[in-house]
Design brief:
Elements: H1 4-17, H2 20-29, H3 33-38, H4 47-62, H5 64-77, H6 89-99, H7 111-116, H8 118-134, H9 143-148, H10 155-167, H11 174-178, E1 186-191, E2 194-199, H12 200-210
Antiparallel strand pairs: 1-2
Helix pairs in contact: 2-4, 4-5, 4-6, 5-6, 6-8, 8-10, 10-12
């Protein structure tokens, strides 16, 4: 790859196609792929934001040493001193852990702090849903805060909390999920490679269905 711009364009193409294996192959040749993926995570209304997060997870699974180098940047974005809104950093941490749990295992206790902050709560819930689907045991200490988010004033946060509990198969949350079934507040959910318009109630019903 001749320069960063060309690398970014190549990555954007694979993200638009949802071709994550191609990203992994590219990362084997270009060590700058993880850092470039972070450049896509600043607009949660953009499909590429979410696919970049997922792509980062794929790269972490195959090339953990590369992604370890950007963990400090992600944590800095979640620090008050960064002056940012955290962007997709909290989501990225969960997605990385899903694919390479060794990279985040020591910082999982920090995730509760991100759930307590309004700016990072929603992204962290998505990240925990991704992490919890593969490693549900890591969510045990966070479950009270995740359940509390079902009553959040922000419908998007309520939806992510319901989605997270469904993904992590938290059966004891069924009763609380039922209270959201009639909540028709519109939200967007990224799942199975697509950013979908739906409602809090529909997300809750899907979560309940996944619990059997």
């Amino acid at each position: 790859m001749h320069n960063r711009r060309a690398l970014r364009e190549q990555i954007g193409g694979w993200l638009r196609e949802g071709n994550f294996p191609a990203l992994v192959e590219l990362a084997a040749r270009e060590p700058g792929v993880p850092a470039q993926l972070l450049r896509f995570i600043y607009d949660p209304g953009d499909l590429l934001h979410w696919r970049a997060l997922e792509g980062l997870g794929w790269v972490a699974g195959a090339h953990p040493e590369m992604v370890q180098k950007v963990l400090g940047r992600l944590l800095w974005l979640l620090n008050e001193d960064s002056g940012s809104f955290g962007w997709g950093a909290a989501s990225a941490l969960g997605e990385i852990g899903r694919h390479q749990v060794s990279l985040v295992k020591e910082i999982v206790p920090m995730f509760n702090g991100f759930l307590e902050e309004a700016f990072s709560r929603g992204p962290m819930l998505w990240g925990l849903g991704r992490l919890g689907e593969a490693h549900p045991e890591l969510l045990q200490e966070s479950l009270p805060l995740i359940a509390a988010a079902l009553s959040d004033a922000d419908p998007q946060v309520r939806a992510w909390a319901a989605w997270c509990l469904g993904k992590a198969q938290v059966a004891e949350a069924a009763g609380k999920l039922e209270t959201l079934m009639a909540d028709e507040s519109p939200v967007k959910i990224y799942d199975e490679g697509e950013l979908k318009e739906t409602s809090v109630g529909r997300v809750a019903r899907n979560a309940l269905a996944s619990l059997g």
